[in-house]
Amino acid sequence: MSNPPAIATRPRIQPAWLMLGGAFTAFTLSAGLMHSYAVYLVAFIEEFGWGRAETSIAYSVSQLVAGFSSPLVGALVDRLGPRRLLLLGGGLLILGLALSAYATALWQIIVLYGVVMTVGANCLGLVVFVPLLSRHFVRHRGMAISIVQSANGLGRAVSAPLVQLGVSGIGWRPTYLVQAVLMAVVAVPLAALFRRADPATAAITDGAVPEGDTSALASAPPHRGWSLSEAVRTRHFWLLFAVYLFTGLGSFFVSLHQLAFAIDVGFDRVYAAGVLGIGALLAVFGTIVTGTLSDYVGREISAILAYGFSIVGVICALMITSPDQHWLLWLHACFFGLTWGARGPAITAKTADLFPGPQLGTILGFITIGSGLGAAAGSWGAGWIFDLTGSYRVAFSLSIASYVCGVVAFWALRRPPVRRAS
Fold this sequence. Notes:
Shape: globular
Number of strands: 0
Strand content: under 5%
Largest sheet: none
Structural class: mainly alpha
CATH architecture: Up-down Bundle
Helix content: over 70%
Radius of gyration: 22 Å
Oligomer: single chain
CATH topology: Growth Hormone, Chain: A
Distance between the termini: 70 Å
Order of helices and strands: HHHHHHHHHHHHHHHHHHH
């Protein structure tokens, strides 16, 4: 008796991988929209005559709001899941972008970009997606987080040259409207990818079972996750807070003012935006490599390598003195861009390693306040230093010092925390 012919079936993409793709796309959009402020900063200075520090206020407020709203966003994603957060964030971004096209005063930019758009972008950021992906990718957690984190570099790379072309071609006000329309088109389809996400799911493996198969929960060993109150009583919580703080300082003493610095030296603005954009694009590769590497050589080693590349990039910027030094601009863009955000997967994966459990989103949200404080101080401080000295060189030197402090704090996280009794 002959066996019936086998029916060919199409391999089905697992829900976890769909959510990873959705998280990558959402974070690319939000990062691109927020990082484009570096281009608008130059446009605002030229149109309104504001100083560097004054024009940087909106960005600094944005970083503060990003940090201090992260605990709220983290708590909301633990309760509501990423789909509702993505719809909320998309709506806020559309509102902020559309109204920014009609701004005529600094306070309007501060409110729209610094508050409305920032909260919206936070709802499409790592605080929302890391807890979900950490549950679905356990043994390859660093890889999964690094893929999402690499979206930060991709968004930054694409936004700078495209927005600069838009501003140069049609003006900054119509460019804001174009960005609002883009966000409106993609928000709902992206949110649909997260319909199956369950915020109550506590753990899942990505090795013994296909991603997204919650049957793994039945065989998972029972363990009690960390609460926020337990985490804050450990030195590791505050070391992670310090890592975020120093990393924010080191990165934003440079990143917001890169384009303005290159233009001041004498480089053509479209050319400089293109070079910096290409350098930022390397962050996609650098972030994925360092994040995946952290699964094999340890989070600390991976993060320290990323810090080292960033420091080399800042040193190259310090050496630039004329627009003839194209090679130094390229080296700065490539070294600094390669590891822009590359520490993120190691830091966030380390947080998930040290404080697993259903309150991971809340814990990560509170720790992320450190990043907001550092980024706010760095971005405004660089502008203030320029207004005071006429140069960014002191700010760039402080960037290097901050990165060194980040290395020291991260290295101190080698041993796991001990849970203290209440």
